[in-house]
Amino acid sequence: MKCFIGIDLGSTTTKAVIMNEDREVIGRGITNSRSNYDTASRVAKQEAMIDARFTLLRQNLDGNEKLGEKQNEFLDDLERNFRREQFVEQLDDLKATCLRSSQGERFDSVRDKLNEVLDKVFIQLREESLALYAKGATRKSDFFRDIAGGRFLTLSEEISKDVGIKYDFALNVYDKSIIEVENRPPAGNLEGKFLDGLRNLTIESPELGITFDDVQGPVKDALAIDLEETFVVGTGYGRVRLPFPKEHIRSEILCHGLGAHMMYPGTRTVLDIGGQDTKSIQVDPQGVVDNFQMNDRCAAGCGRYLGYIADEMNMGLHELGPIAMKSTKAVKINSTCTVFAGAELRDRLALGEKREDILAGLHRSIILRAMSIIARSGGIRDQFTFTGGVAKNEAAVKALRELVKENYGDVVINIDPDSIYTGALGGSEFARRAVMEA
Amino acid sequence: MSAPLRKPSTDVQKDASMAKQKAMIDGNFDRLGNVKNTGEKVSYTFVPGNLNELIMCFDMVGNYPEINAIQNGLRKKSGGMIMEAEKWGHSEDVCTYVKADVGMMRKGNIGPTGQPIPEPDILMLSYTGCYTFLKWFELLRHDYKCETAMLHVPYTGDGEITDAMVQYVVKQLKEEVIPKYEKISGVKFDIDRLRENLAHSAKAEDDFVWVLESAKNKPSPIDAYFGGIYYIGPIFTAFRGTDLAVDYYKTLRAEIEQRIANGQGPITPEGEMKNEKYRIVTEGPPNYTSMREFWKMFYDEGAVVVASTYTKVGGTYDFGFRHDPSRPLESLAEYCMHCYTNRNLPERTRMLESYINDYEADGLLINSIKSCNSFAAGELMMMREVEKRTGKPAAFVETDLVDPRYFSAANVKNRLESYFQMIDQKRRAGV
Fold this sequence. Notes:
The complex is a heterodimer of chains A (438) and B (431). In chain A, 55% of the residues lie in helices and 13% in strands.
């Protein structure tokens, strides 16, 4: 089948969306952008392809008598098992790479002990992967580096101590190897991983009452469908690095405008707050861009601002919003500079202000910056669609709703849970048009 | 694959007129550098509202501080000078022309071509809308302790020039400016000499306007912004009123006539631009420290600037004004008031609107200058109004004049590419 792919290479994450000929989204994939856009785009694309296979499988399983009402549970379990297979595969790659790295001369005096540490760490990590991907388990991130890295460092510190070598050796080997593993093109053999996952699932979840033979037919059928990469459009900051001809590259302004229009056809104003960009885009009723404004010269007030604040407060990025929501009064943060905001934050803490009130003030200050960019682009017209990573942050959304109401009155505000894919969605539609409406 | 940001090649293509222009500009620096031997007196003055024809009547040589800043910017020398000025207490937000000039002075007053810049015998301030000029010469007067003449040119706040306004300027010329120049130079003012100079000006202005308007052709044979900066050089500075300028514009016109006959696009540093895809009108000065990089972002995408307001800051001639030998002082007054910097927002908006229509442009791009409040104020409002009146899309980027720290190439390129694609998208949608 024909697949139209949009890839959005952001400063923090890379997103891919696959659309079919009927303008339906069949797959979405996301990965961290690393410092290597080629790999990031390959991984995001592959993730979207995997997601597309699940969509096809879901379609194949519709009406399957054996599964009946358990279809969703089955598909969730299958995905979980598939992810574990993927995780283990990368873990094996990381182990092999670490062992290769430990061949360096500098490790001559400690090699045996270092390899012993590595062996023990990886045995443990493999065992933990079962619990990590167990039913109902939550993972702090979907990216391999985040999941495996943290545990590797904790385990290797403990085990190095037991074995009697300095922790620095394991750390050095890891630092060198993780970059190599992350930047290696993802391995193929999707079918193998799907079937292994399916086998694990039938063993792990006997309560589903499904045998491997019951469902391997629809799974193999879904895998057998040829997903043809008919046309790929790249957008986002890393787009110039993509190995695409120029006509396959679109500006993220156009892609975000069109993507927002596709999610909410009544959209006339789009605000996108990403890692280092805040964009305000005005679109016409067809999703064609009328005007846009972006932050110039300075990225204060973008997603990275929150990342920096999270680091300053020694918290996870996703924890900021919920804490700020507990605030009863917002502290005024005047500085628009990220680094100065960090200083203001410490100052307010020292003055005894509550953490949640300071955080609420910081969220409001981000949105105030965005309001100024919106004003420059011509203000908010009904309907207003908010996209990008920051749209997932409830405290930012709350501040936005208040300020929109204050400045523009009652306006329909659209926020899609998948809004992080807006640019990639627009890209996939441009890809579809390039072929189907050429 | 879209071209990643890279340094433009060093082999620059030049026309005969460009070589001539460069020789003229360098020639004035030579003349300035040699005043110790020739004994010529030096008059500092600014580009907008300059009285070059009059200054020439007193056998004086003109020094243009903004031109020094621009030439230093193009030669990548302005960054160090700006930092020097900051060391002396000039804040980050001060006009970077001023800081480049003050920094150059503090570093020994060696001009862009390596020749010394002589001290002024007189600072001639024509006030034409930029209030920074006042402060700038105040600073120079403090350091040089020389004679200062101030010509107060009424701002065209109502969008028109009245006879009373002209007479107000003429009176100052007669009673303030001319007597001071006579005193400093020791040369008696000769109005016939002024008439002769003005006749030269008018002749050059005819050809200059013809050159600017050649951009109405498709493809446009010139780039009226990046290329335009070279074209305005002589007429905006020490050469207006000379036969050298008459000759330069004649040569330039002949070259462009040839380009039109051949159906050729503009010359860029990397050769002729083929496949004109976008016709753009610009507002605001260019960025001088990364000019070739900035220009490349246009010609790589097939974008040509067909009209710009910046090429009118030292005189607006394309709406009919010419220096007139039969009304010498009156026409100098009118010239000053016609400068783009002296125009109000509605007039500037009207100019932009007419450029978009008359040059059949695809849209308006504003390059707003970080350190120029006097010029940048109101640009967003103008942009909206032009969009509304013409239905053409506009875009806005921010850089600086000669401060290399305020040119974020990746961001500017990102905005420009988005803008050009937006024009494309609108064309496809038939908007």
